Known about the structure:
The protein is an all-alpha fold.
Amino acid sequence: xxxxxxxxxxxxxxxxxxxxxxxxxxxxxxxxxxxxxxxxxxxxxxxxxxxxxxxxxxxxxxxxxxxxxxxxxxxxxxxxxxxxxxxxxxxxxxxxxxxxxxxxxxxxxxxxxxxxxxxxxxxxxxxxxxxxxxxxxxxxxxxxxxxxxxxxxxxxxxxxxxxxxxxxxxxxxxxxxxxxxxx
Length: 183
């Protein structure tokens, strides 16, 4: 309740801005966070894109098509962006402004993807490639926002056993006794 009384008079736009800045700033110096972004989100999450890019390497065997690469891009960013935005909304608990932001971003990514798929032109234009690149960058940014405060990806996360003085499995009995207390 202390948090509610501290923020009660604040504009929710200010609260949202503060929250987003904190979620983006916290993982900046966390090596494990960036390794997961690279391996989990960009490499593994974008496997369809990398398969289509590999087809452009001579001797791979498959016939490259620019349209399939654009379709892979058009479906990558809503998958990452929408999943991260919904994750943010579900984890927001009592912060309505964060829940609303998560759902708004989900709608943005879904509508953008559908529009890009429906409006694909052959040959691809600079605007369509730019839109795909921006969509992918925004999706990765949304993932960073959703997971920026998650202790799973922080190298300097607090030890969960610290409040009890160490691992609870090694505690047999607490030191001291209750003698001297009247019952």
